[in-house]
Amino acid sequence: MTTFKSRLRNDLTSSIKERDELRSATLRMTLAAITTEEVAGKTARELSDDEVVKVITREAKKRREAAEAFDKGGRPEQAERERAEGEVLAGYLPKQLTNEELDGLVAAAVAEAKAGGAEGPRAMGAVMKIVNPKVAGRAEGGRVAAAVKRALVG
Predict the structure, then answer these.
(1) Does the predicted model carry a pTM greater than 0.70?
(2) Alpha-carbon distance 139 to 115, whole Å?
(3) Residue among 82, 38, 41 nearest 62 (CA)
(4) Residue 74 buriedness (CB in 10 A; 0-12 / 13-18 / 19+)
(5) Which of 106, 103, 104 has its CA nearest to residue 132?
(6) Which of 48, 88, 129, 136 could form a disulfide with 26 if both were Cys (CB 3.0 to 4.6 A apart)?
(7) Dihedral-angle region of residue 15 (phi above 0 means left; psi in -120 to 50 means alpha; beta otherwise)
């Protein structure tokens, strides 16, 4: 078992003992998503720590989107619950990049792509290929894409 997954299981056990319903429910859902990912495909496999982080990131994004949907639907209690679950998951994710840090990484990637001959809006794919490994889990894909577009247009 990966260290990250075992940490989640240990935290789940302690949150159950502490009768922390929100935390234990959130960790149960996350571990279920990890298990689902492990058994998806033709053969079952163990996820690496990086893959576990990707699953947690995806789960956190689902919570944010659900909270927005509940807000629009006039259900603030459920929206608040989703936000609280998202905060629990955020504690397991790497620290997110600030806008300035992200813009700096994107600017460097744009310069690197220009050196390789890619310029203007068509360079989007080349720049994303350069910047995505550097960002890896520290910024959401939509945020990265928006920063790249700003840098290429500006």
Answers:
(1) yes
(2) 25
(3) 82
(4) exposed
(5) 106
(6) 88
(7) alpha
**Residues with Cβ within 8 Å of residue 25, at least 6 apart in sequence:** 85
Token digits for 93?
């994710």
Unique residue bearing structure tokens 């149960």: 28
The answer to whether the CB of 128 falls within 8 A of the CB of 152 is no
Tell me the pLDDT tens digit for each residue of 103-119: 888 888 888 877 777 67
Q: Give the residue among 152, 147, 142, 154 at the shortest CA–CA distance from 112.
A: 152
In angstroms, the CA 4 to CA 38 distance is 14
Q: Helices 3-17 and 49-72 meet at what angle, rounded to 10?
A: 50
HSE at residue 138, side-chain half, CA atoms within 13 A, is 16
28-72: per-residue pLDDT in tens? Answer: 999 999 999 999 888 889 888 888 888 998 999 899 999 999 999
The 3-state secondary structure of 76-119, one letter per residue: HHHHHHHHHHHHHHHCCCCCCCCHHHHHHHHHHHHHHHHHCCCC
Structure tokens at 36: 């689902």
**All residues at 6 or more sequence positions from 45 whose CB lies less than 8 Å from its CB, including other chains:** 38
